[in-house]
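Reader question, answered in our methods column.
A reader sent in the components of a multi-part assembly and asked whether the whole thing could be modeled at once rather than chain by chain. We filled in our standard form and ran it. Here is what they sent:
COMPLEX SIZE: two components
ENTRIES:
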Amino acid sequence: MKTFNAKVNVTLKKSVLDPQGQTVLEALHSLGYKGTENLRVGKYFEVTLNAQDENSAKTQLKEMCEKLLVNTVIEQYEVHLS
Amino acid sequence: MKTFNAKVNVTLKKSVLDPQGQTVLEALHSLGYKGTENLRVGKYFEVTLNAQDENSAKTQLKEMCEKLLVNTVIEQYEVHLS
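And here is the structure of the entire assembly that came back:
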């Protein structure tokens, strides 16, 4: 068994409105950061897991995301393994 | 002016308890993912910003994080620019 560190970023799909992100963007504009154009807010998970090998870790992470961590109807995710 | 895409990951500092992460971890265990050992939940921001150069973008992002996006008393952050 090896130990892997995974970082999972979850965001709303591009086609889904993100009012929280819009609010943060407006707050940045009102603080003077006029150069910011687009901002989306999401969730972030840092997971440590034990698995036989990298492929097994990836498979487990994909399952975990699709069963629990991500609402795949409105959200998309990216996994980075190290 | 150039356009930069930044990804900002915000997590609670190691020394701060993360009851939300603990709950997600227990949920994963009860779904059968016994190999997961540690899990922390955080926030994730995807920002598009215009800046003169990479250094200026980095400086602006650092300021935005410290003024608005991150509570530096209990949270830490990582910025990835591309």
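What stands out: Chain B touches chain A through 35 residues (CB under 8 Å). Chain B has one domain: 2-81.
Send us your own complexes using the same form.
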